[in-house]
């Protein structure tokens, strides 16, 4: 005779268990226990053994037997959830946790650059909030509250002067214009890319293993990437240059005006305030009559200082970096092939920024 315990679920219990497994918001082990109970239920005419249930769910027979037994002895909550574990009360209660959060969000002591877990633990004891506390206890509390006092991010917070607001509103007004092919709005920006080669062949991705590459690499110089995007048309063009001097910017601007948008009356250009982004670059690169001809076909708008994020070309450069550039690329030729492939694919998708 079988020694296994058999159960017949109550109607409400079966509904609650079915709802729990369907939503999938509970912990994995809780869902597994609910599935065990549903499969072990004999009120629906099924007569599965504990071994067959274990095979279906990929767990042990002992686990199935324990869950079923706990249901018969303690009910549905006893079967699904852990019993309270023995041990002392937590060292950090609500009040102590509040003190720790306030401390972690304050300036560190003199002579220290930033808070560390050990420093916070020592300071909590020194201030009399706790008699003793371990680093792991402090670390778990900080993690629970998403506080990382040892991290510092650089951030430029400009003072919104009258000049800042004037430039910001000017750029926003440009972006609000309706699409007009005679006056295309084009955002232009640039970024550098360090060229790095890998001396030894890596290993491709495999089941259970990430792709691997040697930590050593060769430095092959840098290249500069110009990216122009027409937000309302969902069109962008990417060009690779050896450097980022005035002449390079002037050549890219001439290409936009006289090749890319040769049929437009004027190119409405948005750039940041980099020193090379000026009409002066045209006169340095070309004869005065050529520079003037190009300049007359450009309606120039600058983002405010410390607000180059208003240039939509920066959004495209971020997409280019994430989707294409964040890896080792050994040469300028390879870089040109990769960014051209990215440009063509993205232009086929024609994502717009409106």
Automatic annotation (TrEMBL):
Entry superkingdom: Bacteria
Keyword hit for Phosphoprotein: no
Keywords: Plasmid
The protein's name in its UniProt record: Tc1-like transposase DDE domain-containing protein
Residue ranges of every copy of the Tc1-like transposase DDE domain listed in the record: 184-335
InterPro entries membership: Homeodomain-like_sf (IPR009057), Tc1-like_DDE_dom (IPR038717), Transpos_IS630-like (IPR047655)
Species whose genome carries this gene: Deinococcus peraridilitoris (strain DSM 19664 / LMG 22246 / CIP 109416 / KR-200)
Signal peptide: none
Lipid metabolism recorded as keyword: no
């Amino acid at each position: 005779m079988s020694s296994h315990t058999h159960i017949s679920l109550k109607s409400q219990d079966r509904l609650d268990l079915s709802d729990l497994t369907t939503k999938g918001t509970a912990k994995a082990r809780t869902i597994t226990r609910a599935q065990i109970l549903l499969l072990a239920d004999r009120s629906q005419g099924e007569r599965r053994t504990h071994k067959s249930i274990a095979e279906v769910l990929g767990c042990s027979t002992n686990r199935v037997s324990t869950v079923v037994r706990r249901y018969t002895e303690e009910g549905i909550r006893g079967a699904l959830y852990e019993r309270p574990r023995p041990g002392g009360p937590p060292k950090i209660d609500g009040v102590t946790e509040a003190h720790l959060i306030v401390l972690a969000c304050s300036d560190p002591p003199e002579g220290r650059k930033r808070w560390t877990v050990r420093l916070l633990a020592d300071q909590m004891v020194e201030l009399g909030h706790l008699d003793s506390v371990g680093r792991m206890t402090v670390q778990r509390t900080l993690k629970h509250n998403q506080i990382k006092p040892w991290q510092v991010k650089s951030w430029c917070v400009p003072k919104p002067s009258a000049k800042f607001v004037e430039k910001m509103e000017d750029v926003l007004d440009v972006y609000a214009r309706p699409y007009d092919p005679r006056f295309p709005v084009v955002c232009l920006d640039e970024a550098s890319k360090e060229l790095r080669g890998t001396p030894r062949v890596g290993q491709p991705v495999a089941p259970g293993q990430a792709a691997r590459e040697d930590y050593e690499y060769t430095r092959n110089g840098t290249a500069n990437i110009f990216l122009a995007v027409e937000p309302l048309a969902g069109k962008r063009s990417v060009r690779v240059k050896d450097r980022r001097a005035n002449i390079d910017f002037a050549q890219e601007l001439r290409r936009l005006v006289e090749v890319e948008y040769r049929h437009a009356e004027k190119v409405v250009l948005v750039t940041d305030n980099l020193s090379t982004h000026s009409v002066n670059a045209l006169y340095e690169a070309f004869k005065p009559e050529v520079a003037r001809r190009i300049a007359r076909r450009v309606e120039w708008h600058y983002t405010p200082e410390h607000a180059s994020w208003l240039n939509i070309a920066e959004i495209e450069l971020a997409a280019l970096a994430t989707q294409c550039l964040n890896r080792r690329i050994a040469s300028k030729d390879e870089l040109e092939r990769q960014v051209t492939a990215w440009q063509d694919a993205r232009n086929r998708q024609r994502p717009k920024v409106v």
